[in-house]
Write a structure and sequence with these properties.
By secondary structure, the protein is of the alpha/beta class. 39% of the residues lie in helices and 16% in strands. It folds into 2 domains: 85 residues, Rossmann fold (3-Layer(aba) Sandwich), CATH 3.40.50; 124 residues, NAD(P)-binding Rossmann-like Domain (Rossmann fold, 3-Layer(aba) Sandwich), CATH 3.40.50.720. The protein has 10 helices and 11 strands. The structure holds NADP nicotinamide-adenine-dinucleotide phosphate.
């Protein structure tokens, strides 16, 4: 019988622990959140992040910029926030409007305040196995695997998707835990042949029902990162859940699996940043 991994419950226990830690700090951690434009999904993400911060004793400061903000203005705001000692974390909500280079913006964040862990310096530290911050979604997945005592060492881990925010860093973290990793993407021929070899299958594509029952080995662990909508507008992942779940030993639901853990890891990173900056 498959165990459905409960990301919501685990996130709640992390929240309680973080709140207990910030409650005894003389200077609480502070996160600057920058939103450029009025994309409704981005607005929701930012509001959720601010709500999470408030629940955990983290100060959040929002900078809502208009859609026609110039790249140089955003860069000078970042320069200002980089220098402010009271700000521990700086997060720029992606995607940015056309005309602003995400690479330039990410590279302009002080790496010690880069709580998304997207700056090339932090990506380098992750790649060399010595991270100061872990990227939120992969860190949330590791926390889930650990919470359910799922061994990674020696396991064949198949990562479907190679994005900079999920697929690549997830592969590196699994490798760091001594998994044997195969990374698949849109040019991978015969995806089912590879997914069937997975002891641990992580999928982050964004295509509903991509992973069917016949693509999964009996007893595999399946982690579904994707956030798609079904025909009724309800969230669903890449995995055809009802077909895949009975074959697995552990599986994450969508929603309620990886999503809440991603949110919590931003708070964890903000706390880490505050400690890096000497707050106690
Ligand atoms: P992305 O940047 O669009 O990357 C998607 C990846 O899937 C790419 O590497 C792409 O390959 C690969 N791909 C596309 N079609 C494929 C196919 N038929 N077979 C195998 N691989 C295929 O997406 P992302 O930002 O990583 O996000 C992926 C999903 O996770 C989205 O649904 C997103 O909403 C969700 N997400 C959820 C969370 C969370 O907290 N739950 C966090 C982040 C993202 P190429 O590189 O060859 O194009």
């Amino acid at each position: 019988m498959a165990v459905i991994m409960d990301g919501r419950a685990l996130a709640r226990s992390y929240k309680e622990r973080i709140a207990a830690q910030t409650a005894v700090m003389s200077h609480p951690p502070a996160l600057a959140v920058i939103l450029v434009g009025n994309d409704p999904a981005s607005r929701t993400y930012v509001t959720n992040k601010e709500k999470d911060c408030a629940e955990c004793g983290i100060i959040s400061k929002e900078y809502a910029l208009s859609v026609d903000t110039k790249e140089e203005d955003l860069l000078s705001l970042l320069e200002k926030l980089n220098r402010q000692p009271e700000i521990d974390g700086v997060l720029v909500q992606l995607p940015l409007p056309a005309g602003i280079s995400e690479d330039k913006v990410i590279a302009a964040i002080n790496p010690s305040k880069d709580v998304d862990a997207f700056h090339p310096y932090n990506v380098g530290l992750i790649a060399t196995g010595n991270p100061q911050f872990l990227p939120c979604t992969p860190a949330g997945i590791l926390a889930l695997l650990d919470a359910y005592s799922i061994e990674i060492a020696g396991k064949h881990c198949v990562m479907v998707g190679r994005s900079n925010i999920v697929g690549k860093p997830m592969s590196l973290l699994l490798l760091g835990r001594n998994g044997t990793i195969t990374i698949c993407h849109s040019q991978t021929p015969d995806l089912p042949h590879i997914t069937r070899m997975a002891d641990i299958l992580v999928t982050a594509v964004g295509r509903r029902d991509l992973i069917t029952g016949s693509m999964v080995k009996e007893g595999a662990v399946v982690v579904d990162v994707a956030m798609n909508r079904d025909e009724n507008g309800k969230f669903c992942g890449d995995v055809l859940f009802d077909e895949v779940m009975p074959k697995t030993s552990f599986i994450t639901p969508v929603p309620g699996g990886v999503g809440p853990m991603t949110r919590i890891m931003l708070l964890e990173n903000t706390l880490t940043a505050a400690r890096l900056h000497g707050k106690a």
